[in-house]
Specification:
Structural class: alpha/beta
Distance between the termini: 29 Å
Radius of gyration: 18 Å
Mean pLDDT: 94
Low-confidence stretches: none
Length: 283
Amino acid sequence: MSEALSPFRMLDLGDQRVGYVDRDPDIGGDPLVFLHGGAVDHRMWDQQVNAFVDRRVVAPDARGHGSSSTPTAPYRLCDDVVALLDALEIERAVLVGLSMGGGTAVDTALEYPERVAALVVSGTGTSEPEFTEPWVLDILATWQRTQEAGDAEGWIEAFMRFVPGPRRGPGDVASDVTRCIETMVRDTLAAHVILDDAGIPVPPVAPTPVTDTWARLPQIDVPALAVAGGVDGEDHLRMARHLAGSVPRGHFVTVENSAHYPNMERPDGFNAAVADFVRAHDL
């Protein structure tokens, strides 16, 4: 994967510093704001940042990820998004989020509806995922076990299982995609996980959740597109369909031959889905 071609910037918001890409800030209209998944950073959007040439594009690192601050006190990711929009003097944006970032996008639409022009959510439904699939439950159990044991390599190995999904192997994903994701994960762990006196890794403070998100979905009265990788886990596909069917103006599409990161595995298909959605709704 290539490095993002637009300048990377840092912004001091008082209680945090945010690293972000801001391409073509002088273009009018509602910008596209890309929100990355957990444990990775803005680089996962390299193939999107320069694809939408007629839009302003912003891609931040979430708190506790990439070059942004390590959280030490309670915070909400949706509040961080709005703080960044305020600092950049963006009144409304089309929020495009994957996995954790998709949950953040939905949270922002629920908590700050006036700031969201539309949603594109991939790899999740809301910030309160509901997992029943043995494949995912095993990954979550492995995360817990390896974290308690201070086994960073085991944690990373489990995380990387999301890349091919449950029905493929690592060799089915392009090596540059796998390498980019693993690099981002390792960089995030190195920057934001500290060791306690016993040498056990201590993750940063987790964000405070927004609650009752599934029941509140009908309140989202902006166009919403749920994008799923065709070979992602069944839980992720189910939640994406649930989101699309629960909001008044919801749509669902799949990007075939991709799993949890369709924007990286099949950027042409992902970008076309976003472009078609934006065009259809005159955004």
